[in-house]
Amino acid sequence: MRRLFYREAKQPMSTIEERVKKIVVEQLGVKEDDVTATASFVDDLGADSLDTVELVMALEEEFECEIPDEEAEKITTVQQAVDYIKAHVKA
């Protein structure tokens, strides 16, 4: 029973970090292990400008929000994406 309770408690904990990481892996086709908080989309994960636009669009869709272009340009790492979502999206 404890195990089931733990799972139930953990299941909704699909955290913002986990969701952002999943999107980065899917959009950029990189290994999950490479997607660290400090990973730069361009320098570390090999994204080009089109990749970053598609990544922002995927984040907007996942979190049902709009990220203005001037804000999107400032999001260059996984942690910055997580921080932006936490600050602008109601969980």
Automatic annotation (TrEMBL):
SUPFAM superfamilies in the record: ACP-like
Pfam family membership, one: PP-binding
Any single GO CC term annotated in Swiss-Prot or TrEMBL for this entry: membrane
Gene3D superfamilies membership: ACP-like
Ranges of residues in domain Carrier: 14-89
Keywords assigned by UniProt, alphabetized: Fatty acid biosynthesis, Fatty acid metabolism, Lipid biosynthesis, Lipid metabolism, Phosphopantetheine, Phosphoprotein
GO MF annotations, alphabetized: acyl binding; acyl carrier activity; phosphopantetheine binding
InterPro entries attached to this UniProt entry: ACP (IPR003231), ACP-like_sf (IPR036736), PKS_PP-bd (IPR020806), PP-bd_ACP (IPR009081), Ppantetheine_attach_site (IPR006162)
Keyword S-adenosyl-L-methionine listed: no
One Gene Ontology biological process: lipid A biosynthetic process
Biological role: Carrier of the growing fatty acid chain in fatty acid biosynthesis.
UniProt-recorded name of the protein: Acyl carrier protein
